[in-house]
Amino acid sequence: MEAKQDKNNEEMLNAIINNQPPEEVLYEVAELFKVFGDSTRIRILYALFGNELCVGDIAEVLNMSQSSVSHQLRILKDAKLVKFRREGKSIFYALDDDHVYHIMEMGMEHVEE
Amino acid sequence: MEAKQDKNNEEMLNAIINNQPPEEVLYEVAELFKVFGDSTRIRILYALFGNELCVGDIAEVLNMSQSSVSHQLRILKDAKLVKFRREGKSIFYALDDDHVYHIMEMGMEHVEE
DNA sequence: CTAACATATGAGTTATTATTCATATGAACG
DNA sequence: CGTTCATATGAATAATAACTCATATGTTAG
User: Fold this and answer.
1) What is the pLDDT of residues A30-71, one digit of tens each?
2) B72, B40 in Cβ contact below 8 A?
3) Rounded to whole angstroms, how far apart are CA atoms B7 and A111?
4) Which residues of chain B have a CB within 8 Å of the CB of A34?
5) How far is CA A20 from the centre of its chain?
6) Helix-strand-coil split of chain A, %, nearest 5
7) Is A1 strand, coil or helix?
8) Over the stretch A19-35, which tens digit does the pLDDT of each residue have?
9) DSSP tag of A81
10) Burial of B100 by CB count in 10 Å (0-12 exposed, 13-18 middle, 19+ buried)?
């Protein structure tokens, strides 16, 4: 009885293991959320929610140093969560696409319960 | 001209600052995503996607130690991403609600592009 | 009650990462 | 061109957080 039970459980576990998304995809998903998982970056993203802002303005909105904002923008840029364009001396940042908005909204919803 | 421009920009920045969600909400959103932003926890969540598993089984699926799985389950539990019930000596974990599914699906979608 | 099993937890170590400071790059304008 | 303004970046430090190991808690079976 026990043995049979164990065998079934073993089979079930194997089924689950085989149905998992590939290791590397899971890793990428974690990396994606990791980018959202920092309060400075979240503040930047919400500052850009519907707005296009240059680095200095973002720093002013967040009341943080230009340098740390710039460092975090690079991470957001690498993750393709923000896009940017140059206009003279300034560089304007904006949220990259609808996915970013959706993920932010979903996070907000989960928190506001 | 410059001065007027600056004034408008200042007003715009103030408008943005005032429209930001409260500091503490942003902090919580970041904390939420931080929980999703670790590959061990993401692997646990996907193992639980549609399944109810006990700790030992999760450890087997992930091929990790019982201890580290348990530590991460505590974090998932604190964040209300998983729920659990006891059955005899075992404790079975499952995803807590639809939000969790949605957030995971959204992350997956963003990655698979 | 005690042995055996499943899970949880605390302390310690190591790895990761955000911020600061100093400086580099790059564009505009006289 | 060279100066100024806006942004980016490298190195160093400081703060977080994951994993391991040992052990504690809690449940069931005998």
Assistant:
1) 999 999 999 999 999 999 999 999 999 999 999 999 999 999
2) yes
3) 35
4) 33-34, 37-38
5) 21
6) 65, 10, 20
7) coil
8) 999 999 999 999 999 99
9) S
10) buried
Q: CA geometry: angle at B17 spanning A52 and A81, to 5°?
A: 40
- Read off the amino acid at residue A84: F
Q: Does A101 have pLDDT greater than 90?
A: yes
What is the maximal distance between C-alpha atoms in chain A? 76
Which pLDDT score, from 0 to 100, does residue A8 have?
A: 78
What is the number of residues in chain A? 113
- Distance, CA of A14 to CA of A9 (rounded, Å): 9
> Which of chain D's bases lie under 7 Å from a protein CB?
5-11, 17-23, 26-29
Identity of the residue numbered A20? Q
Residue B4: the pLDDT is: 62
Task: Give the pLDDT score at A113.
Answer: 75
Q: How many CB pairs under 8 A join A and B?
A: 124
B51: Cβ under 7 Å from strand C? no
Contacts of B53 in chain A (CB under 8 A): 16
Q: Is A50 helix (H, G, I), strand (E, B) or coil?
A: coil
